[in-house]
Amino acid sequence: MSYASLEVLFSPADFAALKGRDLSSAVAVVFDVLRATSSIVTALAHGAEAVIPVQEIEQANALAREEPAYLLAGERHGLRLLAHQTGQRDFDLGNSPREFQPEIVAGRTIVMTTTNGTRALQACSHARAVLVGSFLNLTATARALSQARAEQLLLVCGGTFEELAYEDVLGAGALAELLGQQAPLSDSALIARQIWRGAEPDLLAALARSRNGRHLLGQPALAEDVAYCAQVDRFPVVGQIQGERVTSCEGPDQDVWAGAIHQPSKILQSRRVPP
């Protein structure tokens, strides 16, 4: 599948404008590499039934009251939400992907609230399809996009508070590189791809230089998250928003997807996904 355009939205400043755009013929991929989308991908790969992204803590609490079996996951300033912040109880999980182990999440539905990741997912929820992007499932996502029936591709960077996040731009640039000639690149996509090419030789070092990377590395309990999120193609899973839930695309909507999407790759250096 070839797209008419490939565009990158760099920061939350673009989210408000998204609400007014007609995205009925667009597929969006959201990146919040450190760490929300990496955690969602890990949860799905480890057998979670679904992840429900919400913006506010009270929304998460309300869903858990309706369905006590739900796991609650969330962070503020990178740290797991505790009872004094939630007004009810400690959340079960924070936003470290290393917490989402199979013995904890398999078969479970997780309600997740994070500073920026869930906001980005909801900002483009009216697109024809919305996928969850990370380095962990980069090629699987590219292969899904190569099968999509849509005209426009949007790569949405979650950012940090109201600012651009370097690691999200790297993720968008890596995906633009991997898609090759399947879409004319906008200037924003060209910029992201060029930034990725500069960082590609040592992705871990690049993530460690980012604002969020430095913040995580400064906290011993979270420092290993940076290396975890820098793994390329660890999982073949593709996460897609279905209604209000993110689920694994094992049975994709055939109006959107033209073919199978679970084709794991070895390394990013395989470069382009065939159109």
Report on this structure:
By secondary structure, the protein is of the alpha/beta class. The chain folds into 2 domains: 5-36 and 126-248, putative 2-phosphosulfolactate phosphatase, CATH 3.90.1560; 43-117, no CATH class. Helices cover 35% and strands 17% of the residues. It contains 12 helices and 10 strands. Strands 1-8-2-7-9-10 form a 6-stranded mixed beta sheet, sandwiched between helices. Strands 3-6-4-5 form a 4-stranded mixed beta sheet, with helices on both faces. A hairpin with a 2-residue loop joins strand 4 (71-76) and strand 5. Helix 7 (138-146) packs across helix 8. The longest helix has 14 residues, at 166-179. The chain is globular and about 50 Å long. The termini are close together. The relative contact order is 0.22.
Task: Tell me briefly what this model is.
By secondary structure, the protein is an alpha/beta fold. The chain is built from twelve helices and ten strands. β9 (239-242) and β10 form a beta hairpin.
Into which percentage range does the β-strand content fall?
A: 15-25%
Q: End-to-end span in angstroms?
A: 6 Å
Give the spatial strand order of the biggest sheet. Answer: 1-8-2-7-9-10
* Sequence of secondary-structure elements: EHEHEHEEHHEHEHEHHHHHEE
CATH architecture classification of the largest domain: Alpha-Beta Complex
**Helical percentage:** 25-40%
- Counting DSSP H or I runs of 4 or more residues, the number of helices is 12
The oligomerization state is single chain
Identify the overall geometry: globular
Largest sheet: 6 strands, mixed
Give unreliable regions as ranges: 257-272
Query: Helix- and strand-based class?
Result: alpha/beta
Q: How many distinct beta strands?
A: 10
Mean pLDDT: 89
What Rg is obtained from the alpha carbons, in whole angstroms? 17 Å
